[in-house]
Every structure is written in structure tokens, then in C-alpha cells.
Amino acid sequence: MSEQTEPLKTAPIITVQQHILQEQKRFPGASGEFSWLLSGITMATKMIQAKVRRAGLSDILGEQGAVNVQGEVQQKLDVYSNEVLVHCLSTRESIGVLASEENEEPILVHQGSENANYAVVFDPLDGSSNIDVNVSVGTTFSILRRPPGVSLDEPEKWVLQPGSKTIAAGYVVYGSSTLLVYSVGNGVHGFTLEPSVGAYILSHPNMKMPQQGKYYSVNEAYIDTFPPRYREYIERLRSGVLGHKYASRYIGSMVADFHRTLLKGGVFLYPPTEANPGGKLRLLYEANPIAFLAEQAGGTAIDGTQRVLDIQPESIHQRVPFVVGSRVELADFERFASK
Ligand code: P6P
User: Fold this and answer.
1) Strand residue runs (E) in the chain
2) pLDDT tens digits for range 33-68
3) What proportion of the chain, given as a percentage, has pLDDT over 90?
4) Which end of the chain has fewer CB atoms < 10 Å from its terminal CB, N or C?
5) pTM of the entire structure?
6) Distance 81 CA to ligand 1 centre (A)
7) Is any ligand 1 atom within 6 A of the Cβ of residue 127?
8) Do 246 and 132 have their domain in common?
9) Residue 268 belongs to what domain range?
10) What is the distance in A from the centroid of ligand 1 to the CA of 278?
């Protein structure tokens, strides 16, 4: 007699839109504007990934002159990514101000709209110099609420807020798959793009960074110009005092290097260097979103001395030294290497 076989139990398919609507319930009074806002980001990243995936092809096409076969002017991918994000976010009435790595000044959208209560800061295509060699790149973003009493006449005030005021942040890593990782302050969740239907499907619910990892990630070409305490710290990781000798992994794309750190644990560092004595990574749209996610996942992020999310930004494109990763590695850094 054939055994009665249980039907295959498969996990429910949850799209990022469904997930956002669930999360949305945590924001009392939010009338769906927040999920509408986030859908502007997810839509833009789907358009960006479609271009990133065929970058090599478009380069070949582009070599036949400034205009490719579709008659489009050959655009640099980071310019394209920026324009797509600005376009998609400008159609969200709830957004008043945008700040992008690609724009010197903040961008005002919906001048005077009463509903404009949010600012979005983003790096449209972080690590874009890696595209030519087919290495993962990423988009990073943070969402901030308009500070009380601040009008659209003072757009900088909308974005020059400490990362602790972040209400949502995330990144998309365009790697072997396209993965959206985001948090609204209720844990970190990852969604893999299913290209056949163009939907981000929940694939990494409630991501937690391991308490300790086995990799450190830093550009060792500059090690001679790091402050001595950073050099000593890296030597500690190599020597095995934390229980094992660390291996080194460095992709040169912050989103990809952090994504590995989130999944595997360890530490990613961009210390002060001779070329960038104040650090290379931007506070608002690189360090802050990553620091928000790191803390939500149980990790830590500092600028070498203080919590990144406590830093009061002075300017939109301000740079900071950056050390982010697992509790064990960051506790050791703070014990032995922070000022
Ligand atoms: P370096 C990419 O250009 C970027 O902004 C980050 O994504 C990355 O972590 C860093 O710069 C790499 O810089 O100096 O190691 O090439």
C-alpha cells in the first residue's frame, strides 16, 4: 500500500511589498505612504540591475560610437542609476528632499507638498569602478523623517541628521544574484530578485551577524599609512589572539564586503589613510545605512572612536573612517585600538 505522503511543506512566498506592508503596521498613522516610498527604491533597483547585468554588452555596443544600437546616448552606469533613483523617488509625494552621492546639493522634490515628510539619501551605484571587471556593486540608501519645524527652504537640515534618526535603510548588492537587504528598525531581512517575475522574494528572514567571524576586510595596500593602532589591531587578528588566525577578504566594493561580513561575521575597515586622512567612505549614504543594518543584525559600527550612528553630520558628502562587524572583533578593537 502506498504510504500517505505529506504534501511538500514549502515556505510561503513573501514579496518585499508584502513584507513592507507588514512592517508598515509598526508605524502608527503611516497611511501606506512609507511602503509607497520604499517601492520607489525597489522599482529603481530593478531598473538598475537590468543595466548592470548587461554592462559589458552595452560597453561593446557603445564602442560603435557615442550612440548604441537603441539610439541611446551611451551613459555611464552610475549616472544612469542616479537618474533612475531620482526619477522613481520624485514620483513619491511623501518625499521632500533627496541627497545623492552624484549630486553636490540636495534635490528638492514636491516643492511645498504638505505630505512631504521624508528625505532619502543614497549612493546610486557604490563601487561602480568594479563594473568593468564584473565585480559586485551596490546601491545604498537611508530614509529620514523631516525634522520638526523644518521647511523645504532648509533642505540640508532634512538630511544632516545623525544616523540614529534613520527610520529605514538598506542596500541592494548586484552580485551572482540581486539581493535587497533592508531594515525598518525591526531586524534585517533579505530578498532575492526573481528575474522571471521581477519580484524581490524573502530569502533571508531576520538576518543576524555571527558574534565572531574568521575574515578581516581592509585594503592592505595602504597599511603603512594607517594610524599605528589600526596596524596593531590587524596584527592581533592575524596572530590568533582572538581564538584563531584570521584570513583576509577584500572585494573593494563596500556593499559586497559588508554583505559577506553580515553573513559570515568578521570585520570590515576603511581606516584613515594618507590619501583620505578623514576616511574615504561617506557618512550619510555609505556608513550610516550600513551601520544601521549592522546594529539591527547584532553587530557594531564605529568611526574608530565613536558609534557611527551618533555622529552629527556637518556636510552632505562628509567622509568618516569606518570599522564595522561582529561584536567580538569590534569589542577587541574598542579595547585595544580606539583612541
Ligand atoms: P579602495 C568604492 O569606490 C568605494 O567607495 C567602496 O565601495 C569601497 O569599499 C572603497 O571605495 C574601496 O576603496 O581605496 O580600497 O579602492
Assistant:
1) 95-100, 107-108, 118-126, 137-145, 168-174, 178-183, 188-194, 199-207, 215-217, 247-248, 267-270, 281-282, 300-302, 319-320, 322-325
2) 778 888 999 999 999 999 888 877 765 433 333 443
3) 71
4) N
5) 0.92
6) 18
7) yes
8) no
9) 215-338
10) 14
